[in-house]
Amino acid sequence: MSVRLACLLLCCRILAAADRTNVATLPGLDGALPSRLETGYVTVDEEHGAELFYYFVESEGDPGTDPVLLWLNGGNRCSVLSALFFEIGPVKLVIEPYNGGLPRLRYHPYSWTKVTSIIFVDSPVGAGFSFSRDPGGYNVGDVSSTLQLVKFVNKWFVEHPEFLANPLYVGGESYAGKLVPFLVQKISEDTEAGVKPVPNLKGYLVGNPSTGESIDHDTVVPYAHGVGIISDQLYETILENCGRGDYANPKNGICAQAMNRFNDLIGEVWGAHILYKNCIDASPKPDDATAGRKILKEEIVVQNRLPPRPAMDCQTYPNYLSYFWANSNITRETLRIKKGTVDEWVRCDDDGLLPYSGDLGSIIKYHRNLTSRGYRVLVYSGDHDSIVPFLGTQAWVRSLNYPILDDWRAWHTDGQSAGFTVTYANSLTFATIKGGGHTAPEYQPERCLAMFGRWISEKPL
Asked: Under DSSP, is residue 50 helix (H, G, I), strand (E, B) or coil?
């Protein structure tokens, strides 16, 4: 190797390392993190200067041999900080009245980092702290953003070769469940083509996942009937006049009237978990506005998209707190957020200000292809979710027509049923989480860690 080439490679590594930061503790947390946290950026679109931001949390067990999990968030350009703070990460927000300062953090005893290292990535471009220097870089969709994630994985492992031998899994929930199998498909194609580096890809998991098929949502009607939200009479009217499925497009007046009544009734419950308080977002109270002005001068960047303040006993209250934590100047300095890239962090692009194309279509064919090729797959459903009910997920899993190896049974924690599961040929497992919602680990963290820990260790649930 020439001296010039060696110097060039060294310079490239130094520049790459400059985009990576080791974080010993997080603002608002009393004490050190239980394992190493690294934050950084990976360029995925050189033409537009688009970079994906990530949080890499090493396993609290043996990071040298434990699996590595790449985690994607669902929702409308929702930041992966939601998964880190509310679901499977090592810290959670302390639920307490917001007083205008920095929200506090606490340790999460049921973090999935107990058994695996996790790469939390803000994707697509424009989610969380991911950004594009050229506005054209925000114009992405299912396919283009997934191909950018393939580039992210390749570049990340180039800079982290010590993890190449670790088993690699990809996971996500809700809308991310639609992208995960497509991403795994593309990574596997690169692996088979000999593209370097070659990660040790083993499988994937999806929770309450979208598939791009109408079955995700059409089963809301029988689900609502089964749990007592709608009456027998309304259910029978819908079946008789709307047919089975495609309820979003009523074919006649009676069907339209029945579906209007259905929508009124289903609106009485919290869609993500039918047993939780159905919270209506409230506008900030006067004291909140005062707090906002105070911290604007002192330590927190508050711009134009301050979220409404829900009641503190609402499941969405941590979302409100996360806005102030992520927009704190102290937080941005700690995470080494590049100045001038993201003026205001928002948890999700609920206003739809950035373009996005849902151009992937049905992904069930990717599930079929990957399972038939030996990749391990876990499909799980919180059984109290009415957004993507377990009925639809169970139906498409069954439609793969794989032989049953371990028939439907309960799985347990502490001697009690934690849900139900069935194992099929081709290393495919379906499981429900009793009491789980749309983002199951948010509602049942202990059960979900037990499920994930057994599955990732290749043990029966």
From this structure: strand
Q: Are 299 and 333 in contact (CB under 8 A)?
A: no
Catalytic residue among 79, 174, 381, 427: 174
User: How many Cα atoms occupy the beta-carbon half-sphere of 83 within 13 Å?
Assistant: 31
CATH number of 16-214+359-456: 3.40.50.1820
The reply to whether the predicted model has a pTM over 0.90 is yes
Determine the Cα angle at 140 with ends 58 and 335, to 5°: 30
DSSP letter assigned to residue 295: H
- pLDDT over 90 for what percent of the chain? 83
What is residue 429's predicted lDDT score, i.e. its pLDDT?
98
Upper half-sphere CA count for residue 155 (Cβ side, 13 Å): 23
343 vs 201: CA distance, rounded Å: 36
Provide the percentage of residues in the chain whose pLDDT is more than 70: 91
Catalytic residue among 48, 108, 217, 438: 438
* Active site annotation includes 188: no
Do residues 347 and 81 touch, judged by C-beta distance below 8 A?
Answer: yes
